[in-house]
Design a protein that fits this description.
The protein is α/β, with parallel strands linked by helices.
Length: 464
């Protein structure tokens, strides 16, 4: 990608020569270890530092590559002498070590930015507050089924940097969070997809929505007229500001509310893909493996990317029909005594919970709660009034949920473990209803991550 980079970040003026430089990696998870392996391959003096404990399999990997590392601390003498730093997207700018790096004008990059220097592969980059994992996996599925030599990376799967170091893919489908985008400067997406923008992670953006919006639009930075920008024309936040960003790429909107040119739109129960210079493709909603209006949007975005790459209509149609969605996203767990249990643990913001409630057509006992990231629950109040008969809170501090819904729901119960939440929900639910775990919050108060929360939920359901 190096031949495509533009507009260097001012902090990166000292990075014109990359070899024999000291690269410090903060955070020894999948992305950090991958960045360290790639850096070592390209001759950097590499050091990895994690303020917490490093998982045994990552320690073994670093040891195998003779990459020095530390855990449970950040030794400043070993970090503040870096030429550049690749940081985990989970580390906020207010962390003391980040503040010190910024004071010393040491460039801080994302793993995506760093890895992008060392590959000429075409990139399809997907961001959005909701739906990006599903859309990323669907896009990857379509490309793979079409026979393309394609890798899957970013917020999902194996590290992008590690794959660049060890594989030789022609294409990468990358799920990219706003935290990754914040430390990307010269990287360019060949095809960029912006699914939607709803309030999320506002605690990382000084509770300013515009800061978060600006972060999401970085997906289109550095794009040229040869590139492609795919976006939802029905998303109010995107539509309100898109003109402000003077996007140079070819623009492809998608909508279920109106007919659009050079993109995709729905009429009745039919999607039409009508990109310039390609055969028109029509598909019925019923042909899609992913159901629900939010998944129509996800399918449109993936389909446009596939059409840009001139994949055959038959391949696109077949791929969209046989795709299987991911674990922890509206995952059917079991039906017990006529009660359906759905695991949507990946719903870590209110808008995701809105989608989940919108897709369920029965009465709901909703399990929600956790670490509130500045949530505005007003967007789901109408759906809660219509569908939710009881709320089971799963978290240490549930005051915001009680305050938001005490006038809308007869029963709100506090629980402090997945097993307790499932048992309470089971007793509150009636035959024909749905127990839905869709927390609208992060999981870190009671669980390691959303996967752990979802797995504990599923285990508890199976013990009923």
């Amino acid at each position: 990608m190096s031949n495509k980079h533009q507009d260097m970040n001012p902090l990166e003026q000292n990075t014109t020569s990359f070899n024999t430089k000291r690269l410090v990696v903060l955070g020894a998870g999948e992305s950090g270890v991958g960045a360290a392996i790639l850096a070592q391959k390209h001759g950097f003096d590499v050091f990895v530092s994690d303020f917490g404990a490093i998982a045994d399999h990552y320690k073994a990997e670093l040891t195998a590559f003779n990459i020095p590392f530390e855990e449970n601390q950040h030794t400043e003498d070993l970090i503040l002498n870096a030429t550049e730093v690749v940081k985990s997207p989970g580390i906020p700018d207010k962390a003391p070590i980040i503040k010190k790096l910024l004071e010393k004008n040491i460039p801080i990059l994302s793993e995506i930015e760093f890895a992008g220097r060392y590959t000429k592969a075409k990139t399809i980059c997907i961001t959005g507050s909701n739906g990006k994992t599903t859309t990323t996996l669907l896009t990857y599925h379509i490309l793979k089924k079409a026979g393309l030599n394609v890798g899957l990376a970013g917020n999902i799967g194996k590290s992008f940097a590690k794959q660049v170091a060890q594989e030789n893919f022609d294409y990468y489908v990358l799920e990219i969070s706003s935290f990754m985008l914040d430390n990307m400067y010269q990287f360019k997406a060949d095809i960029a997809i912006l699914l939607n923008i709803t309030p999320d992670h506002l605690d990382r953006y000084n509770y300013e929505m515009r800061n978060y919006v600006n972060s999401k639009f970085r997906i289109a930075q550095n794009q040229t007229q040869e590139d492609h920008f795919i976006y939802c024309a029905d998303d109010p936040e995107t539509e309100a500001v898109i003109a402000d960003f003077a996007i140079k790429a070819q623009i492809h909107p998608f909508s279920i509310k109106k007919e659009v040119a050079n993109g995709a739109f729905a009429s009745g129960q039919t999607i039409t893909f009508n990109l310039n210079h390609s055969d028109k493709l029509t598909m019925s909603f019923s042909d899609l493996a992913l159901q629900g209006s939010h998944n129509v949007y996800n399918s449109m975005a993936s389909g446009i990317a596939a059409k840009i790459l001139d994949l055959r209509n038959a391949t696109i149609r077949e791929s969209m029909g046989d795709f299987k969605n991911i674990e922890h996203r509206l995952e059917h767990v079991a039906k017990i005594s006529g009660i359906t249990f759905i695991n949507d643990s990946k719903a870590t913001n209110v808008n995701s919970t809105w989608y989940a409630l919108e897709s369920v057509n029965t009465d709901v006992v909703l399990i929600m709660g956790g670490v509130d990231k500045g949530n505005d629950y007003s967007m789901i109040k109408d759906l809660v009034k219509q569908k939710v008969k009881a709320i089971v809170c799963l978290g240490k501090d549930n005051k915001a949920i009680h305050d938001a819904f005490e006038d809308d729901v007869e029963v709100i119960v506090n629980t402090f473990s997945a097993r307790e939440a499932v048992e309470v929900a089971y007793h509150l639910a009636k035959k024909g209803s749905t127990v839905l775990l869709s927390p609208a919050c992060a999981s870190f108060d009671l669980f390691k991550n959303y996967e752990d929360r979802g797995n504990q939920f599923k285990a508890a359901v199976r013990e009923l």
